[in-house]
Amino acid sequence: MTTATEVASNMHAPMRTCVGCRAVRPQAELLRSKLFHVGTDESADKEQVLPDQSVRTCAKRHGLRASSGRSAYVCPARACMERAARRGGFARAFARKTPPVDPAALWSAHGEVLAGMIDLLNRSGGTAAAPRVQRLAALATAMRAAVGRVS
User: Fold this and answer.
1) pLDDT reading at 81 higher than 50
2) How many other β-carbons are positioned within 10 Å of the β-carbon of residue 134?
3) CA 50 to chain centre
4) DSSP letters spanning the chain
5) Where along the chain do its domains lie?
6) In the prediction, which pLDDT does 39 show?
7) What pTM does this model have?
8) Roughly what angle, to the nearest 10 degrees, separates helices 130-146 and 78-87?
């Protein structure tokens, strides 16, 4: 008889490609960004690349709406974020021209989103949230470790 742990370890993890370094990694180990329209105007200059989790829950309140179902995944390394912004990785992921991406602002937004999600899950106090908190904490730790390695 197999245990739940054995079943979980044999399950397939979705794989995604980093738009900065083009490395293929498990989706849970990458930062996810989306292209959002700011306001009601449809012009391209009103678009912004933001962390997906930060705006998905409160998009209507801030006048944001996702431009498509596409997402961009980036390694939790600042060098990958800068490389993706410099070499057009975000435009390639969204399959359209994107506004200039400020890697420093996007990096700090991802850090704030991770801290907020970890705090929210810890306050919920449920044991079911523990694995997700561990995954998010590992991602936040990887981001902090990568701060010094800017290319």
Assistant:
1) yes
2) 11
3) 8
4) ---HHHHHHHSPPPEEEBTTT--EEEGGGSEEEEEEEESS---GGGEEEEEHHHHHTTTTTTTEEESSS--EEE-S-HHHHHHHHHHTHHHHHHTS--PPP-HHHHHHHHHHHHHHHHHHHHHH--GGGHHHHHHHHHHHHHHHHHTT---
5) 11-146
6) 66
7) 0.79
8) 70
Residue 66 burial by CB count (10 A; 0-12/13-18/19+): exposed, middle or buried?
Answer: middle
Could you tell me the two tokens for 47? 């678009």
Cα 136 to Cα 138: distance, rounded to the nearest angstrom: 5
Residues 108-150 pLDDT 10s: 999 998 998 888 888 887 777 788 888 889 999 998 887 654 4
Q: Based on the number of CB atoms within 10 Å of its own CB, is 81 exposed (0-12), middle (13-18) or buried (19 or more)?
A: buried
How far apart, in Å, do the first and last CA atoms of the chain sit? 50
Q: Which residues are within 8 A (CB) of 125 and not within 5 positions of it... i.e. 6 or more apart? A: none
76 and 30 in contact (C-beta within 8 Å)?
Answer: yes
Residue 151, pLDDT > 50, answer no
